[in-house]
Amino acid sequence: MKNLFLEFLPYIKQHKNRFIIAMLAGIITALCTSLIAYLVKPVLDQVFYAKNSFMLIVLPIIIIVAYLGKSGGMYIQSYLMNYIGHDIVRQIRNKLLEHILKLEIDFFNKARNGELIARVTNDIEAIKNAVSIYIGDLARESITFVALMVVVIYQSPKLALIGIIIMALSMLPINIISKKIKKRSKDSMEQNSDITSKLNEIFNNAELIKSSNNEKIELKYFKEANLKFFKINMKVVQQNQLITPLMEFLGAIIIAIVIYIGGNEVINERMTTGDFFSFMTALFMTYTPLKRLTAIYAGMQGAIAAGNRIIEILHREPKIKDGSIKIDKVIEKIQFKNVYLNYDNIQALKNINLDFYRNEIIALKGKSGSGKSSIVNLILRLYIPTKGSVIINNISIDKYSQKSICDSIAIVTQRIFIFNDSIAANVAYGQEIDENRVIDALKQSFAYDFVEQLPNGIYTKLDEYGANLSGGQRQRIAIARAIYRNPQVLIFDEATSALDKNTEDSIKKTIDLIRKDKIIIIIAHRPSTIELADRVIEIKDGEIRNIK
């Protein structure tokens, strides 16, 4: 809990004034609550026994003021703590995604999408509860409990001691239960991540699942994961629900003992009726904050488990460190010097020595898994060489900022990325939309013919993953996106694989037209696609076997 508080303390400090006001409101609530308990004594002694008419007027007014203070304090504290909690969640969610996006591509390849989504959504929501509910309630209920205990001890130290001993003993089993809740809460979050990942997998592969008639198989896997999630949650509920009856039972023991001993004190005239009922009222009222405090303690275990999962990612350092130099000159040459690349224990590239020059089209040829895409990944600096170096304009690529590398390079892959936005936004992705440039890029990628037939032209909204387009249409949109950026290095990784021969021939003409002052790299299997190349590099088993 201490680590969680220290991690998120800077966010709380931003709301220092609101937090102070919320704490003051909590103190007012606590003091008014204890005052209400104490007022039982003067009401009984001064009004009902002493028949004091003045106190009959004054005491009801004081009670109204006390309840007003209690209610007003609770409202102010609740509103301000919720404001703080929601704002902190907003900031942490932004920071978490910002940090995740800085991590290397290998992290995304190994992490499940559902796991990451769960951490950015569900886990942070648990943190919100810790900040907006638990911290404020913890302060208010603690002060309320202490203030009421002052009234209890003031009225009868002897009876108070008995109550305190039993309360202290009751904390032992509650502590054991809370530790179990923390473990189960972590299990629940991890299982929820599994379910989210499975759903993400199902929705992303719906076409394959349906075409393979595997709906029942996927549903079976999901049902098993969902049942496991249900069982874990029921164990959390079971342990959580033990706390209230346990507190009720221990409270009954305290009350029974106090009534017996306190009754004897009143009978033997060592205590007035007003003192006894004031004591009993305060004691009864301490039960509410005590019960809430135990519930807060149990609830915090889930927040701690969620916080640890978030902290785990926030403290993960990117393996690829960003450089500081900007590519502000024309890229004349990209060199690979004795480059080796391993993916974990699998060797992808071995002793690659290769140069790419401006105004040149280079084709990388080879079977799937030969290492062609690995060369491209190193140029994009999505990975770093295990050994050797990649050099741009005689400067090692690791000296350049990742932004300047990505601004200078555009890639079209076989896997097409289409966003749930307009065609114009998809083509100009990451840049300001210029209608003329968008239309020109669409024309060069031979996509404008079908785009202008759509209801809203370039502002037609595309479905998620471009589901309302054909495969060839999606690929032409992706090519238009690359052309729109006007990069210095343009990479086509099987970019024409989904196009018919006529469209492919047209795209080849476009490549030939825009090749000036660019380095163009083509990865393809079709002999027709690599006809434009000035050089053809044959890659096999991660090595260069032939250069033509």
Number of strands: 10
Strand order of the largest sheet: 6-7-8-3-9-10
Specify the structural class: alpha/beta
- Give the termini separation: 64 Å
What would you say the CATH architecture of the largest domain is?
A: Up-down Bundle
How many distinct domains?
2
Using the coordinates above, name the CATH class of the largest domain.
Mainly Alpha
- Count of helical stretches: 17
| Helix fraction by DSSP (H/I, runs of at least 4) | 55-70%
Shape: elongated
What Rg do the Cα atoms give? 35 Å
Q: Main beta sheet, described?
A: 6 strands, mixed
SSE run: HHHHHHHHHHEEEHEEHEHHHHEHEEE
In terms of per-residue confidence, which ranges show pLDDT below 50 for 5 or more consecutive residues?
none
Could you report the average pLDDT, rounded to the nearest whole number? 80
Instruction: Name the CATH superfamily assignment of the largest domain.
Output: ABC transporter type 1, transmembrane domain
CATH topology of the largest domain, by name, is ABC transporter transmembrane region fold
* Strand content range: 5-15%
SSE blueprint:
Blueprint: H1 2-13, H2 16-38, H3 40-49, H4 53-102, H5 105-110, H6 113-155, H7 157-204, H8 206-211, H9 215-267, H10 273-314, E1 333-343, E2 346-357, E3 360-365, H11 372-379, E4 387-392, E5 395-396, H12 402-408, E6 409-412, H13 423-427, H14 435-444, H15 448-451, H16 471-485, E7 489-493, H17 501-514, E8 519-523, E9 535-540, E10 543-547
Parallel strand pairs: 3-8, 3-9, 6-7, 7-8
Antiparallel strand pairs: 1-2, 1-4, 4-5, 9-10
Helix pairs in contact: 2-4, 2-6, 2-10, 3-4, 3-10, 4-6, 6-7, 6-10, 7-9, 7-10, 9-10, 14-16
